[in-house]
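Appendix B. Raw example, untouched.
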Amino acid sequence: MSFEGKVIWITGASSGIGEALAYEWSKLGARLILSARRESELERVKNACVHSERCTVVTLDLSHQEEIEAVADRMLQQFGTIDILVNNGGISQRSLVVETDVAVDRRIMEIDYFSGVILTKKLLPAMVAKGSGHIIAISSIVGMFGFPLRSAYSAAKHALHGFYETVWAELNTQGIRVTVVCPGRILTNVSLHALTKDGTPHGEMDHGQANGITAETCARRIIKAVRKNKKEVYVGKKDLLMIYFKRYIPWLYYRLVSKVQPK
């Protein structure tokens, strides 16, 4: 698969995996739409891309449905269709179930699940009409199992698996491809911005996160998976073992996760 000239829309492009994907796809000649809330950071990413002239910056708050729909309409009018959509924008969590305000659960679900659903539904008709398109959803390994301090985050990621697998099941014969990516520990700022029980930022770098693989390595593996039309891909180190423990040795998964000390 060649990405030369392809229109690729990346949400959450101002940092982490989204930023790394922008740099890698720019090297491959793609035309990029970079979205996030902070315009200054998006401009920084754009200017650091090899082909900055092929980058379009558009601010987007994933917690507002009307804004998502309006921006999607503008991008469709400008580009005609989007070849690849990367639903990467999201927010994590660091709080116990019994202490977490339900407003936090709703906010995480709105950003991590519904925003991608809304954007996908806006772009799919043009993709179907063209007979091609690729939806990439950035999930997490905790989209495959539950884990302490991640109740809402894990729930949102579990939900998107059901949605995007159904998109593929309904539309794969019409040229629509879907790839769900499950990163493990990646060296990004996701734990710093994770929501606590009252919705305030966690503000701390997790030890596991600090020792994770780089966002650049993660981005290259994602692009490789897209080239191969993988439907699901796991990216990480030994943390990926938990997926297989849950699937094939469930008693071991339950033993290990029960010993995790939330803090």
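End of appendix B.
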